[in-house]
Amino acid sequence: RRFTIMLLRLCYQIQDEVYRMMPLSRCDNSFCKPIPTYASRITFQNFREELGEYVYGDGVKLDKNHNKKCSTNSYSSTRYRWVNINNFSTRSGKPTIEFRNHGSSTSYEKIRNWILICMSIVKYAENNQRKIYFEPETISLMNVIYSSLGTNLGGQVYHYYLKRVEKFEQVHLNNRHLPSSIISRNTIIV
Fold it and tell me: How far apart are the first and last CA of the chain?
């Protein structure tokens, strides 16, 4: 559970930056929604209720299983957040985390860089738990990438990130349907 708490807190902290590198179709849809604000307040004292709400949307229900559909005959809507921990958070589930932001692609550059970004997020959540818990305001996607990949490879991946942000910057500025937190953080600090 410690890793799950740290992962959600970290991903909440960097989600605006992650969304900025995505096309509008990946920001304004129901399949990779942002992490809600309450996820940033998950602690070791309240994690049962808060993770239950994150995974199931309405608190912990014993009759729900990761392999079964909900009583409404559809999957829990929380699996459609950009960080899907539904499988990871069940006893019988596979230890997988799904990062849902990136769309399908056959571009080696896109696939490689997105995998490295996802790997960096996981590695940072594993190795920087004190910083995530006590100093979240000091964390940025740039820190996560460089800390996990080092100067050379981290620089390449971060340069890719900046190219993507520049490519979609005007689209994000012109769209008023995006979450306001994504639009309001419109400057990159390098």
Answer: 33
Q: What is the mean pLDDT of residues 58-75?
A: 45
Token representation of residue 4:
């799950």
CA dihedral sign of residues 138, 139, 140, 144 = positive
What CA–CA distance (Å, rounded) separates 131 from 6? Answer: 10
User: How many residues are listed for the chain in this entry?
Assistant: 190
Nearest by Cα to 105 from 96, 97, 113: 113
Can you tell me which residue has the tokens 């769309």?
A: 103
- Answer whether residue 152 shows pLDDT above 60: yes
Alpha carbons 155 and 43: distance in angstroms, whole number? 33
Alpha carbons 46 and 9: distance in angstroms, whole number? 13
Extract the tokens encoding 26: 């990946």
3-class SS of residue 54 = helix
Report whether pLDDT(116) > 90. yes
Q: What is the pTM of this model?
A: 0.79
Coil/strand/helix, residue 95: coil
Spatial CB neighbours of 127, under 8 Å, sequence gap ≥ 6: 147
Q: What amino acid is encoded at 159 in this protein? A: H
> Do 141 and 189 touch, CB atoms closer than 8 A?
no
- Residue 174 near residue 146, CB atoms below 8 Å: no
